[in-house]
TrEMBL record:
Residues 8-132 form the ApaG domain. NCBIfam families: PRK05461.1. SUPFAM superfamilies: ApaG-like (SSF110069). The lineage of its organism: Bacteria, Pseudomonadati, Pseudomonadota, Alphaproteobacteria, Sphingomonadales. The gene is apaG. It comes from the Bacteria. Pfam families: DUF525 (PF04379). This is Protein ApaG. HAMAP family: ApaG.
C-alpha cells in the first residue's frame, strides 16, 4: 500500500514530501518518551543535476523547546538527483512530549557548485490520545 504524503513544499523545482507516523511500539508515555517515524521523498523537477549536501532541522516539542539538528546528507547519504529522479528515506524523531513539530531545509549543490536551500515543509507530530 502506498503512503499518502501529507505535507509538501517546492523550492526552485525541488519538491520535498513528508508523511509522519506515531510509533506506539517505540514509545514509553509513562516514561515521558514518544517516537515518530517520517518518510521523506525528494523529487527533482528542475532541469539540472543536484546533490543533497546538508540538512537542517528545527524540532519543537509540546513545551515549546526548540532543537536545531544539522548534519551532512540524510541517513548517511548525499544523493545525486538527475532531472526527473527522486530519493526516498525514512528516519525517526523522539520527543519528551506527546506533541511537537518539525521543519527545516536541505542544502543542495547545483551543477555549477552553487548552493540551493530547499525548504522542508512544516509537519506536526501528534500522539493519539490514550485513556488513563
Amino acid at each position: 500500500m502506498a503512503e499518502l504524503f501529507q505535507h509538501a513544499a517546492m523550492t526552485d523545482g525541488i519538491t520535498v514530501r513528508v508523511v509522519a507516523n506515531f510509533l506506539p511500539e517505540q514509545s514509553e508515555p509513562e516514561a515521558g518518551k514518544w517516537f515518530w517515524v517520517y518518510h521523506i521523498r525528494i523529487e527533482n523537477h528542475s532541469h539540472e543535476r543536484v546533490q543533497l549536501m546538508t540538512r537542517h532541522w528545527r524540532i519543537t516539542d509540546g513545551a515549546g523547546m526548540v532543537s536545531h539538528i544539522e548534519g551532512d546528507g540524510v541517513v548517511g547519504e548525499q544523493p545525486v538527483l538527475m532531472p526527473g529522479q527522486s530519493h526516498d528515506y525514512v528516519s525517526g524523531c523522539p520527543l519528551d512530549t506527546p506533541h511537537g513539530s518539525m521543519e527545516g531545509f536541505y542544502t543542495f549543490h547545483a551543477e555549477d557548485g552553487s548552493p540551493l536551500e530547499v525548504r522542508i515543509p512544516f509537519f506536526p507530530l501528534a500522539a493519539p490520545a490514550t485513556a488513563s
